Amino acid sequence: MKDNFTTYPLVSIITVNYNQSSVTLDLLKSLENITYPNVEVIVVDNASPNDRAEVISESYPNVQLIKSNTNLGFAGGNNLGVRASKGEYLMFINNDTEVPEGFLEPLVELFQKDERIGMVSPKIKFHWNKELIQYAGYTKMNPYTIRNSSIGYHQKDGEKFSRLEETNAAHGAAMMVPRRVIEKVGMMTEIYFLYYEEHDWSEMIKRAGYTIYYQPESYILHKESVSTGKDSPFKTYYLTRNRLVFARRNLNGFTRIISIGFQFFISWPKNTLVFILKGQFAHLKAYWRGVLWNLVNYRSIQNNPKLIAS
């Protein structure tokens, strides 16, 4: 595939660190071996309170370490990296991932073949079992439940996950976006703080007339939920809060009314009862806080940071 390139445009690889320098160092170690010859690597430390982020630049002097004064969340941390980047293509990748040596070339080549493509994600497999898929594209977002499914989730990798296909959304753990698209559409919306940012950004990019692709010729390995935990009240709060935010930002008319009504009058009572019956009162509190946030902040959802073309 490398022989098909006429040039190697600069790729900015951006990752966000929060209290996980040792995990981030594993990613950087894997990036040392990539075959794509023109990259810059940017690590944004999101004001880690219990971590010495300087070990990153000490171990990898060529990596640009940006230390935020406050925790900006997933989107805000990545946007800080975007503002410092110079690449024609921007590769957003979770710090709890590791990459094989040739993962960038198939992604860049896809953009060079078709300028209508606005986002690409590689195949994502679990780090603990390289034969199992985490992401091979996304199904369409259900406009009422505000949920979708990761295609191939926990299934064994095989031929049916090896086809290049248009998909409904990129995966936040690994997604490449051309700078020209970001200059037109804007950066990730920071109101979410955590979860649903990539789905919102995918919708923004599709509305601007671009397509989104799943590229199976590239893959990464994902350790999954290292920073937030797989089942925590913290995660419950942001997932609950941001489902409603997504509906409010991306749905219109009757569909929007039905969607928000479904969340308040069906999901809220049902999940409240489930948490009570399971004795999960910390999750119950987090769930209610997520719903109530949308009632209190019924106007504060329309921030779309712009990247000024250089």
What this model shows, in words?
The protein is built from nine helices and ten strands. It is α/β, with parallel strands linked by helices and about 300 residues long. The two termini are about 30 Å apart. The chain has a five-stranded mixed β-sheet with strand order 3-2-1-4-9, sandwiched between helices. Strands 5, 6, 7, 8 and 10 form a five-stranded mixed β-sheet that branches. The mean pLDDT is about 90. It has helices at about 20-30, 55-60, 75-85, 105-115, 180-185, 195-205, 235-250, 255-280, 280-295, and strands at about 10-15, 40-45, 65, 90-95, 95-100, 115-125, 130-135, 165, 175-180, 210-220. Helix 8 packs antiparallel against helix 9 (about 280-295).
Essential attributes:
310 residues, 10 strands, globular, five-stranded mixed β-sheet
Strand residue percentage: 15-25%
Cα Rg: 19 Å
Q: What is the share of helical residues?
A: 25-40%
Contiguous low-pLDDT stretches (5 residues minimum) are none
Q: Which structural class do you get from the secondary structure elements?
A: alpha/beta
- Main sheet overview: 5 strands, mixed
Secondary-structure element string: EHEHEHEEHEEEEHHEHHH
Mean pLDDT: 92
Count every beta strand, where a strand is a DSSP E run of 2 or more residues: 10
Number of helices: 9
For the biggest β-sheet, the strand order reads: 3-2-1-4-9
How would the global form be characterised?
Answer: globular
Amino- and carboxy-terminal Cα gap: 31 Å
Q: How is this structure best summarized?
A:
This protein is of the alpha/beta class and 310 residues long. It is 37% helix and 20% strand.
